[in-house]
Amino acid sequence: MRYLIFLFVLFIGFGNPLYAQKKISLEDVQAFGTFREKKVEGLRSMNDGLHYTVLEEGSRIVKYSYKEGKKIATVFDLSTVDNAPISSFSAYEFSDDETKLLLTTKVEKIYRHSFTAEYFVWNSVTQELTELSAKGRQQLATFSPDGERVAFVRKNNLFVKSLKFGTESQVTFDGKKNEIINGAPDWVYEEEFAYNKAFSWSPDSKFLAFIRFDEREVNDFSMTMFRGEQPSLNENELYPSGYTFKYPKAGEKNSEVSAHVYDLKSKTTVEADLGTEKDIYVPRLKWTADAAELAIMRLNRRQNVLDVLLANPNTGDTRSFFTEKNNRYVAEEFLDDFIFLPDNDYFVVNSERNEYSHLYLYDRQGFLVKQLTDGAFDVTDFYGFDKKRKIFYYQAAKESAMRREVYYVSLDGKKQGKLSSAPGTSKAEFSSGFNYFINSCSSVENPLQVTLHDNTGKLLRVLEDNADLKAKLKEYNIPQKEFFEFETSEGILLNGWMIKPVDFDTSKKYPVVMTQYSGPNSQEVLDKWSVDWYHYLAQEGFVVACVDPRGTGARGEEFRKVTYMQLGKYESDDQVEAAKYLGSLPYVDKNNIAIWGWSYGGFMTLLSMEKGGDIFKAGIAVAPVTHYKFYDTVYTERYMRTPRENPDGYDENSPMANPSNITGRLLIVHGSADDNVHVQNTMEFTEKLVQAGVQFDMAIYTNRNHSIFGGNTRLHLYRKMTDFLKTQLK
Fold this sequence. Notes:
Layout: H1 26-30, E1 44-45, E2 51-56, E3 60-65, E4 71-77, E5 91-94, E6 100-109, E7 115-123, E8 128-131, E9 139-143, E10 149-154, E11 157-162, E12 168-170, E13 180-182, H2 187-192, E14 199-201, E15 207-214, E16 220-225, E17 241-246, E18 256-263, E19 268-271, E20 280-287, E21 294-300, E22 305-311, E23 318-325, H3 333-336, E24 339-340, E25 346-354, E26 356-363, E27 368-371, E28 379-386, E29 391-396, E30 405-410, E31 416-418, E32 425-430, E33 436-443, E34 446-454, E35 459-464, H4 467-473, E36 481-487, E37 493-499, E38 510-515, H5 533-539, E39 543-548, H6 557-561, H7 569-584, E40 588-598, H8 600-612, E41 618-622, H9 633-640, H10 647-652, E42 665-671, H11 680-692, E43 697-701, H12 713-728
Parallel strand pairs: 38-39, 38-40, 40-41, 41-42, 42-43
Antiparallel strand pairs: 1-2, 2-3, 3-4, 5-6, 6-7, 7-8, 9-10, 10-11, 11-12, 13-15, 14-15, 15-18, 16-17, 18-19, 20-21, 21-22, 22-23, 24-25, 25-26, 26-27, 28-29, 29-30, 30-31, 32-33, 33-34, 34-35, 36-37, 37-39
Helix pairs in contact: 7-8
């Protein structure tokens, strides 16, 4: 076996070890936010393309000049509003003409992306701040393009508020919890399609399109809620209550979805024709630029055929316009990177049809005009089209799978190049008109830098350099992250990173903690900045290492989709190979290697320990999936099809199949109110361990969801995991 190591070793760390005195505490990385990067919050480009706004201190919206970097004006200041009904806001949205603001306040989370809130509207012409609705909390409030109305969801129904007349109209009336949802996604759409809003205004403000979810046939899932603390559910002090919601597990029934268009003038609704097949997904609604038609994305249950239907908003009649097919599954990127260009003559798609994800240009009739990007790399985001200069802007992993850069290409292909210059992971936000862009970039050696550039990439100024954080880092002796790659016994080259103890001595042998996530199209080995628990562990004498296995992102479709129909197989094979490689290094104690992970990473911890046997002396699985029959339809079936179609793929790659093979000590952790990966996974798996005679440690966190946080919870969890590793790796 050949091992090739590339070390991006930085001999000058975050601080000079000769002078640094402080040690990182667990509180620093899990409670205090000592090493948290500053960002530019609430940034919005204004219509003129010459200015942008930012949210400052939760109470002011300030306008800046792109060209000069100077503060131009305060667009809105809550402290100047007489008898203001609110004291702060967490987000804002301009109306299209920028005369009104929609302010989001008093947010209460529902699931990962969804929340209810109280919204307020600021009218800069009349200088009035008014409550959007006094009839109850709202979701997803959104201005109509003409700024005259706001659509929102309340208690599963869709409403429209007229700002001119102050009247509130109800669009749907059949919404009911755990039965019918209008305009907001159900649980599985929200989680797996990143589908936050299931309605869309037409560009001319005449129509409101929305999705209706009928989840009456979806099976219920119930979680027991105890009294707990922070927050305390006092009503559950003696008798815990049950929280029940609709959750479609793999192979089970989904919501039946339908698409509708509401005509604001006639106050009538028509249903769009989605065809005769009812077992489908509708993951996006998008209007054509001229508002003449509604584009409805219809995805089959197997998720390998995506049709774009164009609907007449007056009649609901549809016609097939475009189809994307894949032998395995259509990538999620297609959903958001299917974009109608402003001139309405073209649209762009991001497709994997030639091994890598690339941009393709089509005309309005649905015929391919040209492939815009090409090469052995993945396009990871499409930023838009500058119609004046006829330039397309995008993000790609062109130089390395571990980095992201910002690029451009002209319509005729004669002009193309890179706009970002700093190494690391870059993400751009372009101004209206594409004269400027703001780039957010970090690397292992540099915390986040937010910089302003013109459209040639020329640096105009630095908006945030995290100078205070850099100064603070000099007070600490922080170990540095090094990248490496190695070749497995199957000839697969894998990327990884490693953090060694500050006082690293090549003559010593160190225990190793392997961290990973390993899920489809994910990446943990990225050139971006962090100081976290892994640096703390390295300070405490551990070598910490991470390897991205097969199935992870930015290395083309074949590498990404090799796990199809057998989630867990190749990823765990690669983690076992990574442990063997690490154990072969002269400074590693091969008898003291642990692996840990959260969610998919927890699933991978269990499988790797079963396959690796004595290679892993210990492991930690937090909120793990233990059999994919327990997980949701959209995610699981995308990669595995249904349990009926692929029983061996489900069973043979489940940790439930071989629990007795675990020889290392296992700590398994779960939140009792995890709505995503249910605690059922841990309960069923630990029963297998019990019956197999395998000893283990276990922690259940009361009323905590998949993220396991609240009050002292996160610090408690990381202290428990740290103590476990120190005890087991001796």
